[in-house]
Design brief:
Blueprint: E1 14-17, E2 20-23, H1 24-28, E3 32-38, H2 44-55, H3 57-62, E4 65-71, H4 75-88, E5 100-102, H5 107-111, E6 115-120, E7 126-128, E8 130-135, E9 141-147, H6 155-170, E10 173-174, E11 185-187, H7 193-199, E12 204-206, E13 217-219
Parallel strand pairs: 3-4, 4-5
Antiparallel strand pairs: 1-2, 3-8, 6-7, 8-9, 10-11, 11-13, 12-13
Helix pairs in contact: 2-4
Length: 221
């Protein structure tokens, strides 16, 4: 199945959206971006997800992340569904704060490997899975998450991984399990102790392990 791998340049596709026709790289500009797909309009789990994304729009903006959704229905259906989404978000009458791509011919869904073979519409056509792509300012894929149509995403986790991606793009660190912003991070193994001491003025602590290997090095950013 066609798709895109981490580190590859994300396709500069053209598409019709609820905000007009876009060229994806122009839409992103110099920003980070997330593209998240949905099985269909006017469906229950999708409505809860888009509403949650709308409520978190300012959190994504603070991080310099542009949001765009995708579903396999028409622009007209997207616009109508958007009213339901905002009503569910308790913001009836407000516009959806990000565009939705109309992929009614499934061109992008096939190109990006987003179809779910186990979930089909009433005509027997496969629906899109719940894919999420994080794209960096260099237009390369930084993260992808794939959920089945029956499982809604956790948008708090999406914000957490974006915080990690943006931090580790700038610093020679990695974030440990369950990390949250403000907590200690780990020094990458490629740095020597002397390099780490120079780069991290707040100091580096090493956790002793039975192996005697000093690979668990922490610092505060």
């Amino acid at each position: 199945m066609p798709g895109i791998l981490l580190g590859e340049e994300f396709p500069n596709f053209e598409a019709d959206t609820t905000s007009g026709r876009i060229k994806f790289h122009d839409f992103l500009g110099d920003s980070w971006g997330i593209l998240f797909s949905h099985p269909a309009d006017f469906t229950p789990v999708c409505t809860t997800e888009l509403a949650r994304a709308a409520k978190l729009c300012n959190e994504f903006k603070k991080r310099g992340v542009k949001m765009i959704a995708l579903s396999i229905d028409s622009v007209e259906d997207h616009k109508s569904w958007g009213k339901d989404v905002m009503a569910y978000a308790n913001e009836a009458g407000s516009p959806l704060p990000y565009p939705i791509i109309a992929d009614d011919k499934r061109v992008l869904s096939v190109q990006l490997g987003m179809l779910d073979p186990d979930e089909r519409n009433k005509d027997g056509q496969p629906l899109t899975a719940r894919c999420l792509f994080v794209i960096g300012p260099d237009k390369k894929l930084k993260l992808s998450i794939l959920y089945p149509a029956t499982t809604g995403r956790n948008f708090d986790e999406i914000l957490r991984v974006i915080d990690s991606l943006q931090l580790t793009a700038q610093k020679k660190v990695a974030t440990p399990v369950d990390w949250k912003p403000g907590e200690k991070v780990m020094v990458v193994p490629s740095l020597s102790d002397s390099e780490a001491t120079t780069l991290f003025p707040n100091g580096v602590t090493t956790k002793e392990m039975p192996s005697g290997k000093k690979y668990l090095r922490y610092t505060q950013i």
